[in-house]
Amino acid sequence: MSPSPQGDPRTTEPSITEPREVHRKHPKTWAAGVPAVAVALKRGLEQMGPVRTAQTLFHLNQRNGFDCPGCAWPETPGHRKHAEFCENGAKAVAEEATRRAVTPEFFARHGVEDLRTRSGYWLSQQGRLAHPMYLAPGDTHYRPVSWDEAYGIIADELGALSSPDEAVFYTSGRTSNEAAFVYQLFARSLGTNNLPDCSNMCHESSGAALGTSIGIGKGSVTVPDLEAADLILIAGQNPGTNHPRMLATLEKAKHNGARIVAINPLPEAGLMRFKDPQKVGGVLGSGTPLADDFLQLRLGSDMALFRGVARLLRDAERAAPGTVFDHEFLDEHCAGVDDYLALLDDVDLDEVADITGLTRKQIEDLADAVRTSQRIVLCWAMGLTQHRHAVATIAEGTNVLLLRGMIGKPGAGLCPVRGHSNVQGDRTMGIYEKMPESFLAALDAEFGITSPRKHGYDTVAAIKAMAAGRVRVFMAMGGNFVSATPDTEATAAALGKCALTVHVSTKLNESHLATGRHALILPTLGRTDLDVVDGVPQRVSVEDSMSVVHLSRGSLPPVSDQLRSEVAIVCELAQRAFGTDHAVPWAQLMSDYDVIRDRIERVIPGFEDFNIRVRRSDGFVLPHPPRDSRSFDTPDGKAHFAHHPLEWVPIPEGRLILQTLRSHDQYNTTVYGHDDRYRGISGNRRVVMVNPADITALGLRDGQHVDIVSEFRGSDGLEERRVHDFEIVAYDTPRGNAAAYYPETNPLVPLDSVAKESNTPVSKAVVIRLEPA
Ligand SMILES: Nc1nc2c(c(=O)[nH]1)N[C@H]1C(S)=C(S)[C@@H](COP(=O)(O)OP(=O)(O)OC[C@H]3O[C@@H](n4cnc5c(=O)[nH]c(N)nc54)[C@H](O)[C@@H]3O)O[C@H]1N2
Ligand SMILES: Nc1nc2c(c(=O)[nH]1)N[C@H]1C(S)=C(S)[C@@H](COP(=O)(O)OP(=O)(O)OC[C@H]3O[C@@H](n4cnc5c(=O)[nH]c(N)nc54)[C@H](O)[C@@H]3O)O[C@H]1N2
Ligand SMILES: [Mo]
Fold this sequence. Notes:
globular, binds molybdenum atom, 6-stranded mixed barrel, Dimethylsulfoxide Reductase, domain 2, 17% strand, alpha/beta, disordered N terminus, 31 helices, binds ligand MGD, Rossmann fold
């Protein structure tokens, strides 16, 4: 295909503004509004030029357009014809649809050592990867290879494994359903379940908790439910930055009379007030206040808060039997309630106040709101999932909703807000190191393969296996493994022990420089790119945070004719690795994505008439037994009250608890710029936000430069990790709690510090001390 003029790549190196000194302004008390539009347009024009900017922003989340590669927040049903503006969605698109290109000449100019000295920001600003590149053993520079050579290199290494379990296949959550399905089929045809994914670091704790409590690891609400709720609790989530389109839903809920409670250590602007840039009122007026209550609790104390609320509900029920609990729901649909109520005897509400840092009155008010509301939704994200006791915390929040019968009725339910735009779909497609027997059996029957039954590695287990020399081939379908995972130095060293590392990527990142003995970078099409097979434009499908599956079609001419789709890369590699007479018809699968969808339909329940229903303008909703019919796919068919011992995060003397979080100007490890606008911090990301009273108590001062040292008691005693030269910023965070940006602080997160049951790295509670630099 010949690129149109606006598709011509820019190959001169862009001039990059590297970080300078930190600037502070007052944190914002509202989100979006006119500045959001201005920033989005500026970034769009810089990266894409005027024509592509207009083309992409017009096609974002449209009926015939592409699914936004930003977050997994759903479209409002029936609204897909209107452009839904979102600053950070626009930035995600600009980042992908940039005209800048990383060519073989770029790699000839910059050796791997040189690139290792560059920041992640500098790397991603270079533009789209434009040619397959190979770093041969002992080489200093990546050099161009043909696709054939690249497949040959991978197939040779896979052929030389002494066990298929010496290969690991990572996935990041942007991969489409079709690509994810063929990718896991490839891994299982090879004979391994080593399919770690970004979800292991993200909502794994939600999946683990909900799986046990309600029998399915997905949220139980839809957008109309949120709009109809009378109480919405938002715990551990910063929607103004990470799910901006959620604010429009919250605004609507608010207009319908909902009360919104923000539960967060930080007064995030998006939780406070929203100015919809698409409405006159949002441009000229003061916007809509969102949160009615802001509960500024300490890091890791949500479980205590939920348990305190449960205790108050129980007391109210005892005082006026039959008025608080939903007895019909409890009797008919739940197990374990009596044991849970007994556990509540031990709750000391003064202790809950101490742990959370909230007042008794705040806790009682929340319990009153939960007691008197008829339709309650609990939303959460990384602030709950990335703690040692994350699974117990989410299960505790679920217990509270169960007591009031808030599952499987309109306007109520559980709402884990997913991150990557198709992370939920990838899991549905089998990207999981321990898929159930029913899935594996169906896959085997459909394709005539024998999937391995032994569970594979998740992300943390994969790093440990690499470190132990048990992995020879590491392949990543997207993502930035070395920067997103904990313990950056240890992880880079582990990757270095692999024979071959392979990255299927859209943009250059640090993981391309954390190589095995040899390494490949394979450039792929993104969501915005036109994907044509035999003259026919292909569409892919994705599943949003509320289990809605719909189509996405890119429209932009790719930045180079060397880019291949993720589906093609997997299927071509499979033909090379397994030969053309393999049981799986790889050539046929890649010839038309409808064929893949037909196969998905035969393997995965809920995809009946996939190709027909996915073409409806709003797509279709996957089944969710608790939501649809209050049925629970647990051994006894009931929802289960969890009975975990109460846990929280104590703050050792002279230490702080650090959470690692996102600024307003990044997408995970991809830094778009240095302006965390809502928090009023710009210029440089190496900052640590600390409560002013703690700064004084620690004998430090605002603006001082410090090293952050993390302390972790591992099996071999006290371990320390250090990152250098961070500026202290006095900030409104609870006493004893601090915050700094991910991924700069990932070297501080110990690989062994993981959530119980879900094995998710504990990124929101790192014990630290600050040492003057
Ligand atoms: N623009 C943009 N959008 C994104 C992303 C991005 O990087 N940029 N990333 C995507 C991905 S993969 C994900 S998973 C989501 C992440 O979305 P979020 O979970 O909103 O992301 P974080 O920045 O990690 O923010 C965590 C929030 O939880 C709060 N928090 C931290 N610890 C606690 C706690 O113990 N209790 C409570 N109650 N609150 C706590 C923090 O103060 C912060 O407000 O966003 C997705 N969308
Ligand atoms: N300390 C700390 N660590 C964390 C977190 C935290 O809050 N704190 N959050 C965790 C969470 S929630 C997540 S989800 C992970 C994220 O982990 P990952 O998903 O691994 O990381 P990303 O930064 O999203 O990956 C960005 C890269 O993906 C590639 N890419 C983008 N789009 C596409 C595409 O369409 N196809 C392909 N093949 N490649 C593409 C680009 O090359 C880009 O450089 O990080 C986790 N790590
Ligand atoms: Mo995530």
